[in-house]
Design brief:
Length: about 130
């Protein structure tokens, strides 16, 4: 169904382009070459109204195919995050015996033995000879 509407949309767009080019403007149309409307197929007075009516209907079909293509593609498109697994929160036992949750991170932190406090990476130790 979507392929049919897409092909119809392209054909209607090309037809709409052709209809706009065929119409005579105040300064002469693209196909009129400034010669006026007297050499049109359907007559001098009726040509403007006939082409204008046909253009309105083709533009209406173009708008309907635009909206329907948008609706059909929007209902099928999903975010890649919809299929991503939900990270589970890890729970552990703190020193006081209460359960604590640690946030999930993308980068692994330093490994610290139990009962020891971790130093920040950028802070030098007190006995560091560099300072």
């Amino acid at each position: 169904m979507m392929t049919f509407v897409a092909v119809l949309h392209i054909l209607v767009a090309l037809l709409l382009i052709g209809l706009v080019l065929v119409q005579d403007s105040k300064g002469g149309g693209a196909l009129g070459m400034g010669g006026g409307g007297s050499n049109s197929v359907v007559g001098a007075a009726g040509a403007q109204t006939l082409w204008a009516k046909i253009t309105r209907y083709v533009a209406l079909v173009f708008a309907i195919t635009c909206v329907s293509l948008t609706y059909m593609t929007a209902s099928k498109t999903k975010s890649i995050m919809d299929s991503a697994p939900v990270p589970a929160a890890t729970t552990g036992s703190a020193a006081g015996g209460a359960a604590a949750t640690t946030p999930a991170t993308t980068e692994p932190g330093p490994v610290v033995p139990a009962g020891k406090a971790a130093l920040p990476v950028d802070t030098p130790k007190a006995d560091d000879p560099k300072k």
